[in-house]
Design brief:
3 helices, 2 domains, two-stranded parallel sheet, five-stranded mixed beta sheet, Chitinase A, domain 3, 155 residues, Helix Hairpins, alpha/beta
Length: 155
């Protein structure tokens, strides 16, 4: 069973609704329009629309099968001093002094540019179970990076 935050589940539900109500009808219209242009064997618009339709249908199927089995957790309800799923963690790179803040979330909602990292990521795996003041050693493709845990929040 996979975990997801309440916010992450909402985003997946919104994506599914958009795929069903907006993207699917739009691609069906695009296929119909491309068909009207004649010879389908040399019709790039038709091929592109069919490829897009395949992607949309695949994503719809994936979301429909995944959503019912997700275990939803509200991080604001977690009362824990150690880092667990849903924690927002402020860390300091001990070599560079850089400070970063990450929320540990499920793989379906991770987006480093938005400060969310997958629980499956190397940094999250290194942080799980640690407390404020602990150091965490993260193995990366560029080598090991050591972080000090500055703050743990559940928001």
């Amino acid at each position: 069973m996979a975990f997801i935050t309440t916010e992450g589940k909402k985003k997946l539900e919104i994506e599914l609704k958009r795929l069903l109500e907006v993207d699917r009808p739009a691609v069906i219209d695009a296929i119909e329009e491309a068909r009207a242009h004649g010879d389908l064997s040399e019709n790039a618009e038709y091929a592109a629309a069919r490829e897009r339709q395949s992607f949309i249908e695949g994503r719809i199927a994936e979301l429909k099968s995944k959503l019912p089995s997700l275990q939803v957790l509200d991080p604001s309800q977690i009362k824990e001093s150690k880092i667990v799923f849903g924690a927002t963690v402020t860390v300091q790179n001990l070599e560079t002094g850089d400070i970063s803040k990450y929320q540990i979330v499920g793989p379906d909602e991770a987006d480093v540019s938005k400060g969310t990292i997958s629980i499956m990521s190397p940094i999250a795996r290194a942080l799980i179970g640690k407390t404020e003041g602990d150091d965490a050693l993260v193995n990366t493709p560029k080598g090991e990076i050591e972080y000090e845990i500055k703050k743990i929040e559940y928001v």
